[in-house]
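Here is one chain, start to finish.
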Amino acid sequence: MVSLASLRTVLSASVLFLMLGSISANAGSACGGASWYALRSKTASGERMNPSDLTAAHRTLPFGSKVKVTNQRNGRSIVVRINDRGPFVKGRVIDLSKGAANRLGFIGAGHTNICMARL
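Its structure:
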């Protein structure tokens, strides 16, 4: 027979596991500002940045993560790969390569509002 204390422990661990799972699943989902950059230096991941690639900088997502980014002003979406750290400007959630910004249609503006979701 299972004791009440054992049942409570299992139930508490299950609830904690479910809560942590939902937090990590949503860690890559956000809406906010995005800007673009086009350096040719090395990224935080160690690879040389190619401004025409569909890459991005994010503060915490692991390098190599794929993220779907949607421009809220025109509805265009692309998938980018995280290979750098940033942005370092308040209110921005991602920095995109020039190639990604071009596909999303905000090169001239320099920044836009986006929503993103980790794939």
